[in-house]
Amino acid sequence: MWLRELKRYARSRVQIVVSLGQPCLYLLALALGWDRSSAGGHGSYLQFMAPGVVGMTVLFSSVFSGIAMLWTGSSAS
């Protein structure tokens, strides 16, 4: 079942672009924008934000793919 979902994900160019584009947007727009506006501190805002963005991306991607598998599995029966 996971292989079928992986193949379906690989065929969807829009879903790949969105799933990679959203974290990049958060990192580039927010982290770099806030880093330039902040004065001082320990480390950059990008170092602060990167682990959270990666964690959110993994969490939400897995939840949405799990829901999609349950949704397609329940409609097949």
What's this, in brief?
By secondary structure, the chain is an all-alpha fold. Helix content is 87%, strand content 0%.
How does this model look, in words?
The chain is mainly α. Helix content is 87%, strand content 0%. Helix 2 (13-37) packs antiparallel against helix 3.
Helix-strand blueprint:
Layout: H1 2-11, H2 13-37, H3 45-76
Helix pairs in contact: 2-3
Distance between the termini: 15 Å
Mean pLDDT score, rounded?
A: 78
Which consecutive residue ranges, at least 5 long each, have pLDDT under 50? Answer: none
Instruction: Compute the CA-based radius of gyration.
Output: 17 Å
In N-to-C order, the SSE pattern is HHH
Helical proportion, percent range:
over 70%
Q: Structural class, please? A: mainly alpha
Number of beta-strand segments: 0
Anisotropy-based shape: elongated
Strand portion: under 5%
Number of helices: 3
Largest sheet: none
What characteristics describe this protein?
77 residues, mainly alpha, 3 helices, 0% strand
